[in-house]
Amino acid sequence: MSGFFDRLAAMFGAPAAGESTSAPKTVRTTLHGVPVEVINTRSDIATADVLARLDESLALIGTYQPWRLAHLRRDIRGIRVERFACRGAFIPQDNVIITELTFLARRDITAAPVASSILHEGVHARVHAMGVYRTEAELPREERLCRRAELAFGQALPAELGASVVERAMASLSLDDRGVAPVVDWQEAQRRQDAADRNAST
User: Fold this and answer.
1) Which among 91, 81, 7 has a CA at the least distance from the CA of 45?
2) What b-and-e string marks burial along 125-153, b requiring 16 or more CB atoms within 10 Å of the CB?
3) Which of 44, 151, 161, 186 could make an SS bond with 112 (beta carbons 3.0 to 4.6 A apart)?
4) 160-191, pLDDT tens digit by residue?
5) Distance between CA atoms of 22 and 4, rounded to whole angstroms?
């Protein structure tokens, strides 16, 4: 496995002298049979580190719930890593899962919450792949389906990895419909993201 990370570092490490970091760095690869695209707009984040954490997260899914990884391979076109206003999303029109760039760059958490987020969005993808027509009123029910999948995943992990996943899933499942499927002000979320990126570049 260390050889894999060494190759990532060599391919996607720090830019060479004189190389511009202002333009997004886009990298395409495949991890665990899932096509991956990384659109890195942050010069303070190494693409190699992001891919290493994604590899680790998919490995957790493949080890502890391999059927979920098999579903991902069938149900989505790939995973896109980019700056986004929440940690993950399923985009039906593109048939891709977004996993947020800075979420993957965090090292104050383990790979388990990242894997859980991907698995959550994979359940949305599975519902979509089955051709289920969903109305806005049915979104809380689908969110609870995703959270129950997260809970089961967390319980399947070793206790030291799964505890935070189980805690977050249980907290979400205890919420009412508006709490479990909140209405998001995406403009405000984008404003906060832009402010965070400006602060990171100064």
Assistant:
1) 81
2) bbbbeeeeeeeeeebbebbbebbebbbbb
3) 161
4) 999 999 999 999 999 988 887 776 655 665 66
5) 27
Element (H, E) at 4: helix 2-12
Residue 123 CB contacts under 8 Å (≥ 6 apart), including other chains: 142, 145, 146, 149
Is the distance from CB of 165 to CB of 173 less than 8 angstroms?
A: no
Check: CB of residue 100 under 8 Å from CB of residue 87. yes
**Which phi and psi angles does 189 have, rounded to 5°?**
-60, -40
The rounded distance, in Å, linking the Cα atoms of 155 and 147 is: 12
Nearest to 28 by CA among 85, 87, 96: 96
Instruction: Report the alpha-carbon distance of residue 33 to residue 128 in Å, rounded.
Output: 20
pTM metric for this prediction: 0.81
Give the model confidence (pLDDT) of 27-57 as tens digits. Answer: 999 999 999 999 999 999 999 999 999 999 9
- Nearby residues of 150 by Cβ (< 8 Å), 6 or more positions away: 116, 119, 120, 165, 168, 169
* DSSP 8-state class, residue 107: -
For residue 97, which phi and psi values (nearest 5 degrees)?
-100, 130
